[in-house]
Design goal:
heterodimer; A: alpha/beta; six-stranded antiparallel sheet; 26% helix; B: mainly alpha; two-stranded antiparallel sheet; 3% strand
């Protein structure tokens, strides 16, 4: 195969996993290239799109939905994703250079030790092959790389030594009212560690409180993977946008020999390297592997176990919102600053999931489309003039919302497959999703709703509204499971494919269980941990 | 994607001479021409919002975007939505006329719009002044 692009290491996907790995390898002098399916954008153009979009609150509206690299839409679950049901998998992720970190919330929690030992502790799900002690130093490094601000004294159930890279962000007026209301309850309110600058850090400014972490930070105070894309380029890595990798080629020894990609015009290209990294998130990575089925890989590349694409998980989400009796002044500061984390672990975990509850600082924006939807509703009540202005100010000052992110058990029947029957515009299979919420999830939703009623009741609100069905947490995990046994996992503890020594699969696909932490910090920690094995493999 | 329905000068002229606007602005002289249209739109807007400080240049852009074949109730609604949200409803969905000029932002506790820098780090710890 004559290749269009060659390097020692070829990385597919320029999100946090791929960009961070590329930066670390390039800084070690490794000839590294990164390709991403989607376009490369700038913060300025993204902000222009955001401001010009009537649906600016929806994460996808800010980013290009390229014909050659479509991304799912929250409002149209059947757009791009093929929904096989029975439950909807209505998630959002981006296919652009920088990936979904463009619109993440920046919460940087660690998994707790018991998150990694769910099977041992409850008989449910799986254990991780790595202990918390093995992961801890990589969490430390990930917190430095992303730039995490946090309260080192807060008990988050995941022991750490030393201070966070930055002091915790000042809590909002609303957070302080929740803290007072919860004093003496079983709920402990803590500062949520987040990759948002509380002081200048990494050459970036401190947060200016735009209240739009999702979909976009206007100042760059919030970490996104462009930071490591640019670091990788400074160290000599080459980054190519608009290359849609659709096939992994194997040689007769079943080592990866190359990658095939399409350009936006449909023309074909080839990549040749010594070592290959797929870091295209937990839908596109398994899709590429499954699409690469052939004589040397009848079930798809890296899929001797049959587990590629299986055990798809999210963090099913329960949102509750209400009008507080007193003004709380939401819409000021980062989207979320505080949370309740001591609901993540307990001896009830064999019966129902652990969950964390975030206090949201952006009113009813996520569940209702406020503040615009609030204005519209008040106008529709017939208000005008002074009365309308007063009602808008009053309601927006009292909107509170809290959200519980619950652990979903791995289920091999929940899966992503490559739908050869329903290709995208380039002729590449779309992801076909089979997804079902089990009783464990429904018990978690019920428990979270009861907790929310108590918490909002303590603050003093009207009767809370709740999302009736599990909502998307947008934390896609589990489809290239990590483990020590090639029969029951896809990658080893270094994220190397069991079957192919020169293929690494980075990202949350490796998670054996979803745990109770937002996944990005763990994605970063596992990626950093994989750098030494990648270097060793290259030297082999 | 379909373009929002356009509102050409001739159609706008018809609408502003129509029953809906006359009812909104009883007794206003029916002078023809764009300047008179804008003056009437702004007068209606001042009555509906209860504010005297409306930006007439922005008003001209709202007027340009206003659907013409609406009933009285929906015209009132559309004009209030325009001023507060910066969006104009169209049959194809809302269209952005202005982002930073919408009147709702101060009601969200800071003068700058959500999505723009709203103050120095930590300003959110205190209620708005």
């Amino acid at each position: 195969m004559s290749a269009d692009l060659t390097a020692d290491v070829a990385i597919v996907g320029a999100g946090v996993a791929g960009a961070l790995t590329a930066a670390k390898l390039a800084e070690q002098g490794v000839d590294t290239l990164v390709v991403d399916a989607g376009p490369r954008i700038t913060r300025e153009t993204a902000l222009e799109t955001y401001r010009a979009s009537p649906e600016r609150l929806l994460p996808g509206a800010t980013y290009p939905n390229a014909r050659h690299a479509p991304h799912p839409l929250l409002r149209e679950p059947d757009f791009y994703l093929v929904q096989e049901g029975p439950d909807p998998f209505a998630v959002s992720y981006q296919r652009i250079v920088g990936g979904t970190t463009w619109h993440w919330e920046a919460t940087c929690l660690r998994m707790t030790p018991s998150d990694l030992r769910l099977k041992s502790e409850t008989g449910l799900g799986a254990d991780w092959p790595l202990s918390y002690q093995e992961l801890a130093p990589w969490y430390d490094e990930a917190e430095r790389e992303l730039g995490v601000a946090g309260d080192g004294k807060a008990d988050l159930g995941a022991p750490r030594t030393g201070a966070y890279p930055m002091p915790g962000m000042a809590l909002s007026y609303m957070d302080q009212q929740f803290a007072k209301a919860l004093a003496g309850s079983s709920y402990r309110l803590v500062t949520t560690p987040a990759a948002r600058n509380s002081v200048a850090y990494g050459g970036r400014v401190s947060c200016c409180g735009a209240n739009s972490c999702v979909p976009i930070c206007p100042s760059g105070a919030k970490y996104d993977a462009m930071i490591h894309v640019e670091a990788a380029e400074r160290a000599g890595a080459r980054v190519f946008a608009d290359r849609v990798v659709h096939r992994v080629e194997l040689d007769p020894e079943r080592r990866v020999a190359g990658l095939a990609f399409k350009r936006p015009d449909g023309s074909e290209g080839a990549i040749a390297a010594k070592l290959y990294v797929l870091a295209a998130h937990a839908i596109e990575t398994p899709k590429i592997l499954l699409m690469s089925r052939g004589e040397r890989a009848p079930k798809g590349v890296a899929n001797g176990s049959g587990l590629v694409g299986r055990n798809l998980m999210d963090h099913p989400y329960k949102m509750s919102w209400a009008l507080a009796e007193q003004p709380q002044w939401p819409y000021r500061g980062p989207m979320t600053l505080s949370s309740i984390e001591n609901t993540r672990w307990g001896d009830w975990r064999s019966e129902r999931p652990g969950y964390r509850i975030a206090i949201y600082n952006n009113g009813w924006a996520i569940p209702t489309g406020a503040p615009i939807a609030t204005v519209e509703a008040l106008i529709d009540q017939g208000l005008e003039g002074e009365a309308l202005a007063r009602a808008i100010g009053d309601q927006l000052s009292r909107q509170v919302m809290i959200g519980a992110m619950t652990e979903q058990l791995p289920d091999p029947e929940n899966r992503i497959e490559a739908d050869f029957e329903r290709p995208d515009a380039l002729g590449i299979p779309r992801p076909k999703i089979t997804f079902r919420f089990d009783d464990y999830t429904h018990r978690g939703m019920a428990a979270a709703e009861r907790a929310h009623e108590e918490i909002l009741g303590r603050l003093g609100t009207d009767q809370p509204r709740h999302t009736p069905e599990p909502a998307a947490g947008n934390h896609i995990m589990g489809t290239t499971r990590m483990g020590d046994d090639p029969k029951t996992s896809v990658v080893d503890r270094s994220l190397r494919a069991h079957e192919h020594p020169n293929l690494f699969l980075l990202g949350s696909g490796a998670f054996p269980t979803g745990g109770t932490a937002n996944p990005t910090l763990t994605i970063a920690a596992l990626s950093l941990r994989a750098v030494a094995p990648i270097l060793a493999q290259l030297a082999d | 994607m379909k373009r929002p329905r356009s509102v050409g000068p001739s159609r706008r002229q018809v609408a502003l001479g129509g029953a809906a606007f006359c009812a909104l602005l009883t007794g206003a002289p029916g002078a023809p021409g764009a300047a008179a249209d804008l003056a009437r739109y702004l007068e209606i807007s001042r009555r509906l919002t209860g504010r005297e400080d409306l930006d007439s240049a922005l008003g001209a852009r709202y007027l340009e975007a206003l659907p013409t074949d609406a009933s009285l109730d929906s015209l009132k609604r559309d004009i209030l939505l325009q001023w507060y949200t910066g969006l104009t409803p169209t049959p194809e969905g809302p269209r952005v006329v202005t982002y930073e000029g919408a009147l709702l932002w101060p009601a969200t506790g800071a003068d700058q719009p959500i999505g723009s820098c709203r103050g120095v780090t930590g300003f959110w710890s205190e209620p708005p002044a």
